Fold these 4 entries.
Entry 1:
Amino acid sequence: MSLRNLSLAAKTTIDGFMTGANKSSIKGSGMEFSQYRSYMPGDDLRWMDWKMYARSDRYYIRESESETNISVRLLVDASASMDHRDGDWTKMEYARYLAASLAYLAHMQGDAVGLYVMREDGIFSLAARQGTQHLNRLFYQLEQAGPKGRFTEPIHYKDIYAGGRKRELLVFITDMYQQGEEIYELLDLLGALRHEIIVLHLMARNEMELSYEGFTTLEDLETGATIQVDTDAIKQGYTQKLTDHLTNTRKALLGRNIDYRLMVTDEPVDEALRAFLQARK
């Protein structure tokens, strides 16, 4: 993350350790053997394993795993709460590197990749395509995506219907900060369109641990409201409420068949991605 150029940072992060991460488990006439199954009337006789027949006097079809290209769409929360800073980095900067790394991974595997930037005044959309030139456009848009205002109002979600009808793998990078239920409304809409959804929930270490001393003033980055607190006095109650909040968030997303992972922004991007992909394997 010391590399300021997104394309170079993404290439450095991904190269060498995640090749083939999204190989499909669809069975068919691919190159890598997967399993045998009993012959069924109508099966293609080209995939009959005659050696198995000679050994067992039974008909078996040889199945293999086939590689597939998928369409990946990255959704990036660009609301003002993503400007929260812990140390040298904001959530938005972490989100940019995370999205850029995933985009480069998809490009490296021949997958189409697109982008939604969730802004207060609407949704910026970049259709999922393949190619180096398209990837560079995506990096440019990520670099321009600055945190501002509140999360996208539900009235703008209709813009999502203007996209293609193809099912996509959606990776939503967000801090899950919402005034009401607007993020859940968005996820319900995306689920109704039958997309597969992954939520990468970003939190900073100082949010997780309330690592401030004595009296301090906290500001809501989206509304500007401030509150003075004695962090030493409220830390125990804060920790319990945060635990309850994260538990409820996880349950709400898993109940919607959404893959969920909490990421803390002091974790190196490559380690966070490796742990996430291994968990999904």
Entry 2:
Amino acid sequence: MKTDEQDRPDVALRGIRVIEMGQLIAGPFAGKTLGEFGADVIKIEPPGAGDPLRNWRMLKEGTSVWWQVQSRNKRSIALDLRSPEGQDIARQLIASADVLIENFRPGTLESWGMGWDVLSELNPGLIMLRISGYGQTGPYRDLPGFGAIGEAMGGLRHLTGEPGRVPVRCGISIGDTLAALHGTIGVLTALHHRKVNGGKGQVIDVALNEAVLNVMESLIPEYSAFGAVREAAGSALPGISPSNAYRCVDGYVLIAGNGDSIFKRLMQTIGRDDLAEDPGLADNAGRTKRVVELDAAIGVWTATKTVVEVLDALGQARVPAGKVYTVADIVADPHYRARDMIVSQTTRDGYALDVPGVVPKLMGTPGTIRSSAPGLGDDTDNVLAQLGLSEKDVDVLRSKGVIA
């Protein structure tokens, strides 16, 4: 089932076959990442509407443009997993796969006869990535969980927004994406372990709330050591000073002047040599005590200048700073283009679409966009033929609605 390109020596995951059963964001993002580095990703979708992401947000030619990014480098088979025949075909696919990705509620695969006990006996080398709201164990395992709920339970939502106001989301489904990235790390780790330890597979259990908690930096130890409950702080970075967003004549800039030498250069640039040489501000601890004073001083300076003027001055002083970009700014920025982070992808409907490039950048085995996102069931016949089913078998399954 692998493509010719997967045999190239510069394809990192050549020969790795992934069966993706997930929908929407978390599971499919993990599949996307593996596919970009050469894995053969076969996506199983329900006949009819397919993955709901096909119809999320803005549609072009009847399909979400988000789908065009999330499902590139994948093959689609439309298969009814609720039918015995569909479950049998899925088991056949999994029997020869390296990785299975699923993000159903715990117990769903077991109800279809595809629990770990069954699948690991069928394929001892199988690596099974399971992404769910709260994990496969624990008192909350059966509760429905979305990324937004994981962000709330993981502590992130409490910190986003302005002090004293309603918590806000960061604007994207960050909880799902964090879970997907943790899952991808788990898959790659398990593939290495399988290679050097006798070919044994294993389950990777990723909970949305735990993936969020894992990136919450000093949140837990500060509470343990000091009883400190970190609160929302708007655009500031509490305890790291100065680091904030500052208003200019025509917008905002982010300035990170929290390094000791960087702070001095920042203060000299804004005409506050007195603060640059103040011994009480020589380190972060002292600056944090006077953060209101420092933010006010920086704000007075930026308020009289344009964003470009601020960035030019701070660039010359080697102070980290950046404009708060809109998507229009991102697409117009030559640096993104130079690093192939905005690339053109032709969809199967025939139109060109600007999409994000591949991250991370591997010099020896770079990720690629080998194929555009599939239509629902585009690869059903081909995948089933490779399983050994005849045209007659396929016609019968189609007539029963098992495939589409």
Entry 3:
Amino acid sequence: MKALYLFGILAASLALTDGVMFCYYESWAAYAPYGGEFHTNDIDPHLCTHLFYAFAGINPETYEVKILDPYTDLCIEGGLCGFENFTALKQENPDLKTLLSIGGWTEGSETYSTMAGDKGYREAFVASSVSLIQQYGFDGLDLDWEYPTQRGGVPEDKENFVTLLNELKAGLQEDGLLLTIAVSAGKYTIDESYDIPGISAVVDFVNLMTYDFHGSWEPFTHANSPLFAHPDDADHGLEFLNVDFAVQYWIDGGCPPVKLVMGIPVYGRTYTLEDPSQTGFFAPTSLPGIPGVYTNESGLMGYHELCFSQILSDEWVIVHDETMNEPYAYILSQNNLWVSYDDPDSVRLKAAYARDQGLAGCMVWSMDTDDFAGACGRPYDIINSITEEFHLKK
């Protein structure tokens, strides 16, 4: 199937000439060490069609929207004015849309579950969210609840999520504001968490988080965001953990392709090899890889960290496995570090896939881990490669 698809990319007509490029911005990138810090005023306003500011949260006492980092987000007390600078980017590009993303993994699920299950709490959340968006000039709201029914949620979340989205849409559409959601790409979470037809009928776009299929939480190496299954995945019960399966599952479940936006990671998942003689897929591991110098998170490296590290050291071994679409690399002199990631070539394959499936476009998490300074070549090589392949650029 994969070989036929890759041949099809070369032969396919370039019918789609439009689409969306969604880019998430991690506000905490402002705190990265020198060389990796990234502020709202560093954003190229012509790079993406829609920008997403991550994150706001929920006040667990009032269930109103909560500003999580006033210093980064606001101008008060010498703050960085993140919200205002972010939405002001539209002055340079009037076609740009900016959205405030609420939620994220760190926010958890329990507070969202409680809020969604109570009419009064929903009203407080909707009213405060719409007010905050209007105050700072955002063009819409992106809800990233990870995940309904999961992580302390309840079975009723599946139905309550649709109710919440309908009430949010009613509060937003009066001023023509957008409503998008970020959703899981895992089959079992999808089954438990989402009424796909119900939510698809309400929202403007569904942002499918087709990454983190594998990582250092597993005892073996694998691809972070495999476009298709590895030939040995079925033997390990992993045949559902790939981009193609997730996209088709959402479409078959009732999500119109024109509303589905396919996620592409701008980072790699890292591991520490147990046996340096085993360096391919399914090599045994027991620890995450050492932290990157900017992201400072074990088990993860931003693309900007990785590509520059590969320039600095000729000890990296970069492998393009013929059975997969994404590269992996390892450097034994750095604690047996192994990383699966996307490069400009692999994201072009993914963008072509999204285009050929008739999807709305692509989204990245996150723009601040792209090579924004051009240390490895042209600036924003990952995002530019995606947009070029999807034919967003005229």
Entry 4:
Amino acid sequence: MPTRELLAIDVVASGRLDVNSGVARMSGKTWAVLWRGGPRRASTVVLFVHPASNFMGHYATEYMSTLGVDAAGLATRYVGNDSALIMENCLLDIGAAIAHLRDLGYERVVLVGNSGGGGLAALYQAQAESPDITRTPAGDPVDIAGAGLSPADSLVMAMAHPGRAVVYTEALDAAIVDELNPFARDESLDMFDPRNGPVYPDEFIRRYREAQIARNRRITEWAQQTLIEIAEEAEPSGGSEADALDDLPFVVHGTAADPRFLDGTIDPSDRKLTTLWGAPWSANFRPASLGHYSSLRSWLSQWSYDLSRANAYKQLPKVQAPVLVVYGSADCAAFPSHARGMADAVRHDDVELVEIEGADHYFQGRPDLARRMSSIIVDWGTR
């Protein structure tokens, strides 16, 4: 009979006010839920990670605990609030979780980056094997190189895209020409204008992708320049240095405009033409969809196309551990080209690419396919 255990994991605070809750900041802990299949701990534990989603109730963990392993879902310090998220701090949280699991006696740790956890898990493993990060993209000290991160024994990309900055840029609305007015639009780059498609011509796609990257880079340049300006002008007045203004929030409109959402001939698969948040036009502006709120520092670490390090395409070539990539043929968020690109990025031979036919991003209505994914990961991770 599976049993559930709450893990309180000590973490290193960032020293910056980047978590709203004082209770969370002052606790010095992050949390995970561990499922065990029996009274004794298994020799292998599977750890599911994501930068901001609450994986303490992850759908796969309880079932996995019936397959001869224990399984845990982690919540980082940024759970449910990625507006100030720093990817490098998430590495410290994963490192603390893996160290905690090893202290509990687990001999093997299988690290699973699920969905937006793919790029983060790849970055973690690359840094755990060969650490070299000492600063965030904004220049803030973060001692990844000296943190003593414990490498996982194997790495899984499960229903994952290569990283938040990559998939975010692929979904930035290229038609927006005024960051303060999402309805001031370049008609020639508007994927929602029926004169452009779908089906979208190759030339439109080429221009659209170029414009998306250019927009991301404009926001990155503005964020960097704004950080310089506030450092020069916003000195503390009668307070300590820690009270000085050192970041600002901002809004990004139009973040669910990937042409693949409307055109099934691009990156062909069994997916429905939609997004994880509903119809593309409304999801593009809906507050609950991806990455509408950010701080300057978080943008550089999390969303910047050029500066964010949590990019599996760039990190997987550095990874020496075995890698499994599992994807669904009906996924409308992590596409077949993402899975193939991640598998191709691995530079050693111990890599496997597995398609689960008919599976969407969350296995909606198909618990049998979720169990299949779980079995694939367990069988591979306990070879």
